[in-house]
Amino acid sequence: MKKLHSIVCMKPVPDPSRFDKLKLDPATLLLCRDQVPPVVNPLDRNAIEAALTLRESRGGSVSVLTMAAPSADEQLREALAMGCDRAVLLTDRAFAGADTLATARVLHAAIRKLGRFDFVFCGAWSADGSTGQVGPQVAELLGIPDLTRVFQLELGRGGLRAHCRIEGGSAVYECAPPMLVTLDKEANVPRYAGMVGIRKALQREVSVWNAKSLKLSPKEVGLEGSPTKMLNVYTSPVGRKGEILQGTPAEAGKKLLAQLRKAKAIA
Amino acid sequence: MDFDFPNPVKIVKRTAREFAEGAIAPLVEKMETGGEFPKALIRKMGDVGLLGLLVPRNYGGSALGYLARTVAVQEVSRVSPAVGIALQVHHMQTAAVLDWGSKTQKEKYLPALCRGEYLGTVAVTEPTGGSDLLGMASTAKAEKGDYVLNGRKCFITNAHLCGAPVIVVKTGEGSRGLSAFIVDKATRGFSAGREEHKMGLRGANTGELIFKNCRVRAGNLLGDEGEGMKAALKTISEVGRPGMAAVALGILEAALEEGVKFAKGRTLYGKPISNLQAIQWHIADIYTEAETAKLVCYRACWLKDQGRECATDMVMGKVVATEAACRATRKALDIHGGCGSMLEFPIQRLWRDAMVCVSAGGTTEIGKLVMSRAALS
User: Fold this and answer.
1) Nearest in space to B153 (alpha carbons), one of B167, B163, B174
2) Which positions in chain B have a beta carbon within 8 angstroms of at least one beta carbon in chain A?
3) Which of B123, B185, B269, B275 lies 20 to 30 Å from B360 when distance is taken between CA atoms?
4) Residue range B122-229 in CATH 2.40.110.10
């Protein structure tokens, strides 16, 4: 039986349990990340768990990648402590300011550099950006199918059988590798990074790749390679206006219909 | 100076917090009302590696060091100081076996202690007290190549949960007249006696260990005959005291969280009481107690991890942290007003737990004696 190679794309995010301490830099409109210590994006832990569970049932290996600042060594070592076999840090000043597409390009290049793979696992979204776009974009660049928001995963004869959350319900798909899967919280219970694992992770090497080693030009990555430009960040005001429509129920109903039509809420 | 934790310690802290919140928090209420330690937790702590933090990998541990161990015990104690003391006392036995045990003893006991087949303990205290070591009455008499133990140890943490505790008894007179033994619980003449009911740390098991003509082989001696006092003092000073300090650090963290939560949620005069300066002063005091205690304790553990002299710093950390925990929980209790007396608010438990921490591992007065000797020397 062929040994599986799974790749997990991971992102360090500010600890969600301390989001109340997060602030925006008014000048750059970026998060002041030094205010809250980074952790492995919670849903990426589900992605790591899925890859490790697969390895335990079918053998093979698990590689974990992250595009981040050098301090992400800590989160990569946590992934190694959970049981991943190899960790790669994708870091370069040129990667800074990347939107989801520029991030996906770097991850895609790194996955290609890693060689043969069967599965790519990602969290369904990151706790900070919450776009949920990077996974599908990586799949598109790799030219492989992707299943998103998976909340139940089984390995069948024909590949993976995945239960995906869709609007208003769920759908079940079966798909042969290579493929990309993004995981929801309900997919599994991530294991702890045990103390013995932490000790072992201390002695492991974390590979560091930059734009040059990934053969990426500055135009493809970072701010320059990002089609999305952030113009402003603001807290949208939330408010409700109440109005009591007078008259009998029938009259009030007519007035309500008229107002809804005027507001183009209904045709 | 680098005040940041090394990466492995940061990961230990997160894992210990996750484990405490996931596996221990649901048990706290039952431990509090029943006064019993949840035995199933021992294996779980073994699985996640909390029991073998000081033990090298070849014996089943992770040897992540004393700073990592302090942070782990702190995180566990933030949720349950009772589990924290059980864990830290367990570490005392692993350290004693590592420091003084033969290769055979290490191979026999350390993997089992790391896996969580049972908890560990070091039994020194007797009804005459814990600090007057030479005043102990329990004896081991050499007889036909064996030793016969008689006596009673009291206030022993994990007494009913340990499998092969370290026991310090008299084998002669003077400072070379104490010896340490590892005694399997199944040995004839060895039993756990009375179980204590404490005002705090209620889920932690505390009780007696009784020896009646309990015959053990010479191979059960931990270290050489006459080294018991040295072994006991080193283990208490460098493992037990920082362990109690770590329990107190967890209480301090929890007291700050509970105080802040209540102050932000309780409304008086139409505003949260956190707007009142009197309350803000309490919060500032608790915050300062917690942060300054951490600095002293972490530094002491760092010294130990560097292999440097640390006994005085360890006792300083223990005194500072446990006394701070008493003051801080009292202030957090004051913030709660009448609610602080109600059992559904955790702060009353933390206050009672803090009080019990003061005498465990040596009273504040004994700690000051050690510190004054160092300062005056």
Assistant:
1) B167
2) 7-8, 10-12, 14-15, 18-19, 47-50, 52-53, 57, 60-64, 68, 72
3) B185
4) yes
Mean pLDDT by 10 residues, chain B (377 residues): 92 97 97 95 98 97 97 98 98 98 97 98 88 88 95 96 96 93 96 95 96 96 95 95 98 98 94 96 98 98 96 96 98 97 96 96 92 94
Q: Would residue A117 count as lying in a domain?
A: yes
What ipTM does this complex have? 0.88
In this prediction the pTM is: 0.90
A73 inside domain: yes
Task: Tell me the pLDDT tens digit for each residue of A45-66.
Answer: 999 999 999 999 989 999 999 9
Q: Which CATH code is given to the segment(s) B230-376?
A: 1.20.140.10
Q: Look up the CATH number of the domain holding residue A23.
A: 3.40.50.620
A228 part of a folded domain: no
B50 vs A74, A195, A201: nearest CB: A195
Which residues does A contribute to its contact with B (CB < 8 Å)?
Answer: 37, 39, 73-74, 77-78, 81, 192-199, 201-202
Contacts with B18 from chain A: Cβ below 8 Å: 192
Domain positions in chain B are 7-115, 122-229, 230-376
Q: Give the DSSP letter of residue A24.
A: B
A199-241: pLDDT as tens digits: 999 999 999 999 999 999 999 999 999 999 888 888 788 888 8
Q: CA of A75 to nearest chain B CA: how many angstroms apart?
A: 8
DSSP structure string for A54-89 = HHHHH-EEEEEEEES-GGGHHHHHHHHHHT-SEEEE
B326 Cβ contact list (under 8 Å, min separation 6): B351, B354, B355, B357, B358
Report chain B residues whose CB lies below 8 A from the CB of A194. Answer: 15, 47-49, 62
In a domain, A240, yes or no: no
DSSP state of A237: P
CA distance A221 to chain B (A): 29
Containing structural domain, residue A74: 4-220
- Does the distance separating the beta carbons of A37 and B15 come in below 8 Å? no
CB contact under 8 A, A78 and B18: no
- The secondary structure of chain B, three-state, reads CCCCCCHHHHHHHHHHHHHHHHHHHHHHHHHHHHCCCCCHHHHHHHHHCHHHCCCCHHHCCCCCCHHHHHHHHHHHHHHCHHHHHHHHHHHHHHHHHHHHCCHHHHHHHHHHHHHCCCECCEECCECCECCCHHHCCCEEEEECCEEEEEEEEEEEECCCCECCCEEEEECCCCCCCEEEEECCCCCCCEEEEEECCCCCCCCCCEEEEEEEEEEEEHHHEECCCCCHHHHHHHHHHHHHHHHHHHHHHHHHHHHHHHHHHHHHHCEECCEEHHHCHHHHHHHHHHHHHHHHHHHHHHHHHHHHHCCCCCHHHHHHHHHHHHHHHHHHHHHHHHHHHHHHHCCCCHHHHHHHHHHHHHHCCCCHHHHHHHHHHHHHC
| Chain A residues in contact with B113 (beta carbon < 8 A) | none
**Closest to B7 (Cβ–Cβ): which among A39, A74, A196?**
A74
- Cβ B62–A196 below 8 Å, yes or no? yes
Looking at chain A, which residue has its C-alpha nearest residue B114? Answer: A196
Q: Confirm or reject CATH 1.10.540.10 for domain B7-115, answering yes or no.
A: yes
Question: Which of these, B89, B70, B92, lies nearest to B249 by C-alpha position?
Answer: B70
